[in-house]
Amino acid sequence: MTGKRTAVAGTARAVMAGAVFGYVEVFTKGIDRLPERPRGGAVDRGLAADALPSARKAEERGKLTSPDDLFFSCYVRTDDSIVSGEVQAGRATEATWQEAHRSDREDGAVPVSAGEVKALALPTRARVYVPCAPRRTEAGAKERRCLTVRARTIGETRLHGTALRQVVAGFACQMARHAYEAGECGETIAFPGELPRLGSN
Q1: How far is it, in rounded angstroms, from Cα 46 to Cα 59?
Q2: CA distances from 172 to 62, 175, 177 (A)
């Protein structure tokens, strides 16, 4: 009888260990199954993994229009949580962009910059400005002088506070770099590997 109880206990432990392993494999590897740099290299999967909670599955989508009328959108989603953003070509100067988002500063946006890349980081949102005049202007193409990015998280997040602000701003900056390269900007801007830590500049 004792031997039978020992065998049953051993089997139960093995089943529990298998269940724990199964949980790790099935429920927390969703983002790990995405490409290392989703959307054709636009963003780093690690940023999405930092922002979003673990989930059974993850997906990524995006859209990029032609360089002359540039618009780029991208999102990574796990269950009910999303990190997403849009890049739009525009005519703002840095000064007019800053003025247009003065209310964000009043709402506590933290400014962070690296060279000509300017960002405003809010608790779950970020904005980025990058100068980008086209190398050439086709007849009928819209004139532009910048790219602006809006990014945000929706739903539950893995990180909070300053750490989440940093991740969302980094996501927006990576989207800006991808669109900048696709948009054939005439200037040459050195994009940072990552934005400086918030509050360090």
Answers
A1: 14
A2: 14, 5, 9
| Secondary structure (DSSP) of 107-156 | TTPEEEEETTEEEEE-SSEEEEEEE--BS---TTPPP--EEEEEEEEES-
pTM over 0.90: no
Digit-by-digit pLDDT tens for the chain (201 residues) are 545 444 444 444 433 333 332 222 223 345 655 555 544 557 777 888 888 887 667 776 778 887 777 899 988 888 889 999 999 999 999 999 999 999 999 999 999 999 999 999 999 999 999 999 887 655 555 677 899 999 999 999 999 999 999 999 999 999 999 999 888 888 788 888 888 888 665
Which bin fits 88, alpha (ψ -120 to 50), beta or left (φ > 0)?
A: beta
Asked whether the beta carbons of 78 and 30 are under 8 A apart, the reply is: yes
Q: Rounded distance, CA 73 to CA 178, Å?
A: 11
Total H helices, total E strands in the chain: 6, 7
Tokens of 119: 């960002």
The SS3 of residue 96 is helix
- Fill in the DSSP letter of residue 185: B
Write the DSSP string, 35-62: -SSHHHHTS-HHHHHHHSPP-S-EEEEE
State the Cα–Cα distance between residues 146 and 89, nearest whole angstrom: 6
